[in-house]
Write a structure and sequence with these properties.
The protein has 3 helices and 8 strands; from the N terminus they run αβββαβαββββ. The chain has 158 residues and is mostly beta strands. It has one domain. The termini are far apart.
Length: 158
């Protein structure tokens, strides 16, 4: 039990994500199956923008113990879910990509991240997900753009 508790602490995320669901992709005789996990997180700085991540999660004995390294396969879709106001600090800040989500995908050296960019010309917020390692990252990535649109203040009546 102590080993499982320690493994859980090693995999704590820096941002909170809510697991929406999962599907098994590979049956494992021992330990959990390999899976695709779907999670949601809200942008910590822009209210009413929610991102949905799908990512591969290894199973087996190592995966069940938190010792397996997940692959770099991930996809992202972000949506405006209510009225959005982009804070002035984001509008006027450098566009180097600000980290809004980070999750460990191995015991020590690999993480999956989401960074945010703002495109003032098109009034769009862009989210990029990718994996990196201390020594070598992966070119696999996924991107989602959220146009900041006026939000209806009332619903039409029939």
């Amino acid at each position: 039990m102590i080993g499982l508790g320690l493994g859980g602490m090693l995999f704590a995320t820096t941002s909170q994500a809510e697991q929406i669901g999962e599907v098994s992709t590979v049956f494992k005789l021992l330990g959990a199956n390999d899976k695709i996990v779907v999670e949601a997180f809200d942008d910590p700085d822009i209210a009413n923008v929610t991102c949905y991540l799908s990512r591969a999660k290894r199973g087996g004995i190592k995966g069940s113990l938190g010792l397996a390294e997940d692959t770099s396969d991930a996809s992202i879709a972000c949506r405006q879910v209510g009225p959005v106001i982009v804070p002035p600090a984001i509008k006027s800040g450098k566009n180097d990509g600000e980290q809004v989500f980070k999750k460990r995908t191995s015991v020590l050296f690999k993480t999956m991240q989401v960074v945010r960019f703002y495109d003032p010309k098109r009034h769009v917020v862009i989210y990029l997900t990718y994996s990196d390692k201390i020594i070598e990252g992966s070119p696999k990535n996924s991107i989602s753009a959220v146009p900041i649109l006026p939000w209806p203040t009332s619903t039409p009546t029939e």
